[in-house]
TrEMBL record:
The entry's keywords: Membrane, Transmembrane, Transmembrane helix
Subcellular location field: Membrane
InterPro entries according to UniProt: AA_transpt_TM
Alphabetized Gene3D superfamilies for the sequence: Amino acid/polyamine transporter I
GO CC terms in record: membrane
Family: Belongs to the amino acid/polyamine transporter 2 family.
Protein name (record): Amino acid transporter transmembrane domain-containing protein
Membrane-traversing stretches: 49-72, 78-99, 111-133, 153-176, 183-207, 238-256
Membrane topology: Multi-pass membrane protein
Length: 279
């Protein structure tokens, strides 16, 4: 029997390890746990496509929708609508690809796992780092938006940082439930709240006399055009805001993993893309 050198042995061991990891990602860990579950076992796979749709919808429209007035002001009405619909279709297609990827690799529960399938251990760490960074910035965006809103409502009762700490703590407590099925109920509240705020803003803007606006008559009434040109930086900023608005894909693997039938997530995706694009 031919003896192998130490580097060859290490390489063979690494290959076997990667194969074991890849094989593990082809098995749904939640299904395995459910198959041997006792009465005290947590059932993670108990969510239907409507609740999953509420989760991804709250993830998508909660912050992104707030930037669209400035997006249309920078791009113009026609360019704004065209770009939004184009990104919506692209988002729908890429989301469908992620669902298919999930079905082919049931053990993938987040983008770090997907990176492991694609690029092995390096893929796991690279995708995992990007997932962590994006999640941190999303959480920070929520804390910032909440602090600004509460600061305005309370007429600066406390400093903005204080409100940010409060929002962060409340967000942490609401994230304590161990299953997404429980969190989905909060998502319904989130969707109703943000859509209600949007309708109030739309109605108030429509019925408010122009001379009641703080900047009137120095800037005059708001004017809309089919196309706008505010420079390269503003255009890129508007486009990235639209991309951010459809950035809920980061959670698709995690949400689908806790569905009774992950393949049904395509219905959740259709629901959120339709509602998010209309509003």
């Amino acid at each position: 029997m031919e003896k192998k050198s130490i580097p060859e042995v290490q390489q063979d061991a690494a290959i076997r390890f990667q194969k074991r990891e890849a094989a593990a990602l082809d098995v749904d860990a939640f299904e395995l746990a459910g198959g041997s579950a006792g009465k005290d076992q947590i059932n993670y796979k108990n969510m239907g496509w409507i609740k999953a749709g509420a989760l991804i919808m709250a993830e998508t429209i909660a912050l992104g929708i707030l930037s669209f007035p400035s997006v249309f002001q920078r791009l113009g009405m026609f360019a704004g609508v065209f770009t939004t619909v184009a990104f919506a279709l692209l988002s729908w297609q890429t989301g469908y690809v992620l669902v298919k990827f999930k079905m082919n690799h049931p053990g993938v529960m987040n983008f770090a796992d997907a990176g492991s399938v694609i690029g092995g251990r390096w893929g796991f760490w690279v995708f995992g780092a990007m997932l962590t960074i994006k999640s941190v910035f999303i959480a920070g965006s929520h804390a910032l938006s909440g602090s600004i809103a509460l600061n305005s409502i309370s007429s600066s009762a406390i400093c903005t940082i204080g409100w940010a700490v409060i929002v962060s703590f409340v967000s942490f407590m609401l994230a304590v439930p161990r299953t997404f099925e429980k969190v989905s109920y909060i998502s319904f509240v989130s969707i109703v709240a943000i859509l209600t705020a949007c309708f109030i803003t739309i109605v108030a803007t429509g019925i408010q006399p122009p001379n009641d606006l703080p900047s009137y008559p120095s800037k005059g009434p708001v004017e809309w055009h089919a196309f706008e040109n505010h420079g390269l930086s503003d255009t890129i900023n508007a486009l990235t805001n639209i991309i951010f608005a459809y950035g809920g894909h980061v959670a698709i693997f995690s949400f689908a993993s806790e569905m009774r039938n992950p393949a049904d997530f395509k219905y959740s995706l259709a629901l959120v893309q339709t509602v998010a694009t209309i509003f």
